[in-house]
Amino acid sequence: xxxxxxxxxxxxxxxxxxxxxxxxxxxxxxxxxxxxxxxxxxxxxxxxxxxxxxxxxxxxxxxxxxxxxxxxxxxxxxxxxxxxxxxxxxxxxxxxxxxxxxxxxxxxxxxxxxxxxxxxxxxxxxxxxxxxxxxxxxxxxxxxxxxxxxxxxxxxxxxxxxxxxxxxxxxxxxxxxxxxxxxxxxxxxxxxxxxxxxxxxxxxxxxxxxxxxxxxxxxxxxxxxxxxxxxxxxxxxxxxxxxxxxxxxxxxxxxxxxxxxxxxxxxxxxxxxxxxxxxxxxxxxxxxxxxxxxxxxxxxxxxxxxxxxxxxxxxxxxxxxxxxxxxxxxxxxxxxxxxxxxxxxxxxxxxxxxxxxxxxxxxxxxxxxxxxxxxxxxxxxxxxxxxxxxxxxxxxxxxxxxxxxxxxxxx
Length: 411
Hints:
The protein is an alpha/beta fold and about 400 residues long. The chain has 13 helices and 15 strands. It has a domain at about 10-115 and about 225-405: 3-Layer(aba) Sandwich (Peroxisomal Thiolase, Chain A, domain 1), CATH 3.40.47. GO terms for molecular function: acyltransferase activity, transferring groups other than amino-acyl groups.
């Protein structure tokens, strides 16, 4: 069966702000949507026939209210929530609507208004956490005890920090990865963010400053974690010359014999999704020029690069060590990972901020700008193929390949 090809033709993004910023959520979504439609030069009332809206913190029909800012057309609006992969899940669903033949022009929107830390908005229902299986695995398969929650954190934030911190410690024990390797990733991302006007934090840090910020868990410091935030991002999808595959937790994620926090943090499902993408698209890792990956913590970016096939398992530290800084096509600086790939030219989640449901859509927008040659001082020279990785615990991972569309000149 031949898949319908779809294109991302419009992009709209707000600057990511600190959590609890003064702008209301519908102001953020209106800016992103209006910018997206203007960028696409498409008339909403005439052409758009569906919308998929992703958010984690909001009422059930926020999507409808957001879309109303473009007009009252009566199109179907689908609200979705898939934790940190919500934004790219919205894109996945929008593309699926087009592939199914039921729609031709679909908006995918992700937005968030957040508090300082990850938390549940429901306190009166007596339900166990959606991540309870992850929590149980964390305490069952590691030596740490159920300790009091760290100052300034709630249960959700504290446990997620421990998950990725323990995964980092496991990677160090297995492969000899150093604290410095994780800090180098954070240093690279913060330096990239200097040239991103949409980034929450555009400050460049030295390696020493990154390693000297407050300890979170294991080798991770506060500068190596993605902060929550407020923001919105929208794309308009009308056809496709890219491929994406979506996976959920595999059995190995919670394998008691394997006793792996690395697996539980999404590397196994990332590896399986990447294999499917490469097989279906005919692409190989070395064909990719630029990547936006889910660096909720610096340790996750290192392990994701391994799972995506940029290097062998356990060699992520070497990949970073072999990297070098270059002057890019836009006049800024890029770090070539493994002397080949530019990863997170936007600055990643660590510096850009992580308004959960806007993240995946913002990754898509950054890569579209890179392939269009519109990334300014962040521009990767000659970028033709891009790869996006977006993880949501609880769990889903979406991996998307984008290819620059070349039109044939008419005689």
